[in-house]
Amino acid sequence: MIFTALKVTIAAFVIAFASWLAGKRPELAGFITALPLVSIMAIAFSYIQYQDTAITAQYARSIIFAVPISWLFFLPFFFIEKWDLNFWISYAIGLALLVVGYFLHQYIMRNIIG
User: pLDDT of 83-110, one tens digit each?
Assistant: First the structure.
């Protein structure tokens, strides 16, 4: 229970710091957010909790393929002015693209990576 509370506290701090920084220095906040901080923390926490190298390696391989697929979320924001989209429409399209990306990721992990 203490380990779970520690994980939640660390993750909450990272998210809160990045969102606070976005108001002051958006470029730096974007760079920090783009770092694989969540992946770094989650991989370490998972290994500490389960002590299984094979599962941790599979987890890391999944992340390698998921990261570029997750970029689909940002695609509508490149066209926000060109297509005269508002924020929430762009956000919704990005979330819909993530759903498509999830199924693409599952296909890759099951049929290509095995």
Answer: 999 999 999 999 999 999 999 999 998 9
Alpha helices in 25-110 (DSSP H): 26-34, 37-50, 53-70, 75-78, 87-107
Q: Where are the domains of the chain?
A: 58-114
Segments of the chain scoring below 50 in pLDDT: none
Query: Residue 16 contacts by C-beta under 8 Å, 6 or more apart in sequence?
Result: none
Report the C-alpha gap between 42 and 36 in whole angstroms: 10
Closest by CA position to 101, among listed 111, 93, 112? 93
